Amino acid sequence: MTTRIDTRFAELKKQGRSAFVTFLMGGDPDPATSLAIIKALPKAGADIIEIGMPFTDPMADGPAVQAAGRRALNAGMTVTRTLQMIHDFRKGEGSTPVVLMGYYNPIYIYGVEKFLTDAKAAGVDGLIVVDLPPEEDSELCIPAMKAGLNFIRLATPTTDDKRLPAVLANTSGFVYYVSITGITGSAAADSTAVGAAVARIKRHTTLPVCVGFGIRTADAARGIAERSDGAVVGSALVDALSGSLDAEGKATAKTVNAVADLAAALAAGVRSARQAAE
Amino acid sequence: MNSLPNSFRSGPDARGHFGIFGGRFVAETLMPLILDLEKAYTEARADAAFQRDMAGYRKDYIGRPSPLYFAERLTEHLRDISAASGRAGGAKVYLKREELNHTGSHKVNNVLGQILVARRMGKKRIIAETGAGQHGVATATLCARFGLECVVYMGAVDVARQEPNVIRMEMLGAKVVPVQSGTRTLKDAMNEALRDWVTNVHNTFYCIGTVAGPHPYPMMVRDFQSIIGDETRAQMQEAEGRLPDSLIACIGGGSNAMGLFHPFLDDSSVEIFGVEAAGHGLDKLHAASLTGGRPGVLHGNRTYLLMNDDGQIQDAHSISAGLDYPGIGPEHSWLHETGRVTYLSATDEEALSAFQLLSRLEGIIPALESAHAIARVVELAPERPKDHLMVVNLSGRGDKDVPQVGDILKGRRK
Ligand SMILES: Cc1ncc(COP(=O)(O)O)c(C=O)c1O
Questions:
Q1: What is the pTM of this model?
Q2: Cis link prior to A63 (omega < 30° from 0)?
Q3: How many whole angstroms from B131 Cα to the centroid of ligand 1?
Q4: pLDDT digits (tens, 9 = 90+) for B240-272
Q5: Catalytic residues (chain A)?
Q6: Which of chain A's residues have a Cβ under 8 Å away from the Cβ of B188?
């Protein structure tokens, strides 16, 4: 089975460069603006789009992403609407992979089988579910693989060589290396340490390794892109979005461009990097 | 309902499941630490020196065993109620006096155990979440005793309504962090503690306050609290020469209840009742996860949760900060579905009345949490015969609630 994610990484390899991966919260600050933003991302240079599914209790997220989730929930975002949004995005865009990222409970309550069927039909390519470690693979990871969706797992600095094989066993699409122990939006790890960690993971897998958490600038994105197969940027984009809102937290005429402009700058940083060391 | 197991005491399984409940639903960063903790606890549990250490601190630092006290005037009052309705019954009510423990509640039993495990693991920094503040006070106390750094997360709403405990924690040298996210109560304090743990995982031990969270916490906390039921068994033998006929305890996450219940789960003659917080009423805002919720996944485990149709966690409400949690320990969810334990609820108003009743009849001011259990005793005991032995877990004392209840009563007198 070849997914949009596999195809995208094969193309990038041919072009000799790393991926620029964006994260935004689905439905932030409202479903219509959120759709307009994700529609603008491929043109701005996003190679893979991650979309957060809002949850009331995002245990691993920092203040920026927490607030984004609140805005989305307050604007009426639900699992059904998130899938609908991706369906609408897919009408004009067939090649950019979309990865849903979130917590397990909303998926569990929606119903795992129904969720996988509907996500696949909407054009979702992969899932990242923060609170499902390999110990709970039977919940969603295995059914997702069977449904033809990539299940992308996080590896962290605490994932040692002994544990890595368990983490990688049912991972597909790519590996998401979280460069620090901490919540989203924390300070960045230095790129030397990231390089060593990526090399360590690559000893255990042939999957692409993307790196996220704490990347805020084009320079930082270049540094990470040089040492990995992709740089993931989330909180900085969420901050650009929230900085464009009015006093009530509502979208303004500036909102879509505020995100797209930052994405374009970050994409340029990634594209100026050399291909990651094989 | 599941088919009944041979023993209700054998859970969880190797992966931390009680039936479909429990498990380990946490971020990858934490998994290696949780596996380390499981190993450390398994070793400690089998180590005679650890058990000896714990027994020593229980006796001389906590002040155990806590008494099992026959509440004579409460019993007489309940017999009068029974007689007035022509039933001529009224169980003999005993109070298991966990409120007499050092720091004022059952929470210290668990914290002692976890801090001794943390010491074995070489951890120097302890974090905890707290609702009513009792778990925070117990944690701050044992951190002071063992010279450990202590950070306690507490919802900003709870910081305001449990001020005496905030002051105590600070006096004991702990740092209290008011949590402003979400609903600013216990569940948000737990989220914030998890965020801290993910960030400082290399040197930090997370001391969870109830029988919830990822495996092995529900099992470990239950084991540490089971001293309540073990003592009750021996004390009732001594007082009455037999087992009690019923047990009753309030449920926030369910640790004081689990501690009392667990040693009796296989004694089929013993009726067991847990009391959740019905807040303003079960059709309004409340914190009764079993009655008003359904199975879901939060804070590292699968259990009954209050949520909406989209799987978003709903706000819980209880007058009592210690019960104001939208979930419940996974073992309780399992005991509920197997039918071994009967779960009831009591409203804010019922708890307030029970609070005053026990204060006036027995000279014991209970915690508002414990008052929820007393509120159901007032109904259950008059229906039982006079030779029925009922044990209520008095999980904590009401000192922390004096300002809050005082304000409410003053407001009503005007
Ligand atoms: C006195 C007292 N009782 C009961 C509880 C509820 O906790 P649990 O249900 O874990 O026993 C608390 C929690 O703060 C408490 O302080």
A1: 0.96
A2: no
A3: 9
A4: 999 999 999 999 999 999 999 999 999 999 999
A5: 50, 61
A6: 57
Look at residues A35, A67, A94 and name the one whose alpha carbon lies nearest to residue A249: A67
Q: Which residues of A are catalytic?
A: 50, 61
Q: B88 at the A interface (CB within 8 A)?
A: no
CA distance B15 to B300: 13
Residue B167 forms part of a structural domain = yes
Q: Is B191 on the interface with A (CB under 8 A)?
A: yes
Please list the ranges in chain A whose pLDDT falls under 50.
276-278
From B38, B98, B99, B129, active-site residue: B129
ipTM over 0.90: yes
In the DSSP assignment, the letter for residue B314 is P
Residues B58 and B155 in one domain: yes
- As for how many domains chain B has, the answer is 2
Single out the residue of B69, B68, B80, B67 nearest to residue B386, CA to CA.
B80
Taking CA atoms, what residue in A is nearest to B17? Answer: A136
Enclosing domain of residue B266: 68-103+220-412
Q: What is the pLDDT of residues B113-172, one digit of tens each?
A: 999 999 999 999 999 999 989 999 999 999 999 999 999 999 999 998 888 999 999 999
Burial class (CB in 10 A: 0-12, 13-18, 19+), B60: exposed
Domain boundary residue, one of B183, B217, B251 = B217
User: Tokens in use for B300?
Assistant: 């590292």
What is the C-alpha to C-alpha distance for residues B176 and B115, in angstroms, rounded to an integer?
Answer: 18
Flag whether pLDDT at B2 surpasses 60: no
Residue B280: CATH number of its domain: 3.40.50.1100
Is any Cβ of chain A less than 8 angstroms from the Cβ of B293?
A: no
Would you say A223 and A191 are in contact if contact means Cβ atoms under 8 Å apart?
yes
In this structure, what DSSP letter does residue A52 have? Answer: E
Catalytic, B129? Answer yes
In ligand 1, which atom is closest to the CA atom of B132?
14
**Interface list for A 95-154 with B (CB within 8 A):** 103-110, 130-133, 135-136, 153-154
Contact assessment for residue A161 and residue A200, using Cβ atoms and an 8 Å cutoff: yes
Q: Span B57-72, mean pLDDT? A: 98
What the block records as the tokens of B225 is 């609290």
Q: How many CB pairs under 8 A join A and B?
A: 116
From the CA of B395, how far away is ligand 1's center (Å)? 7
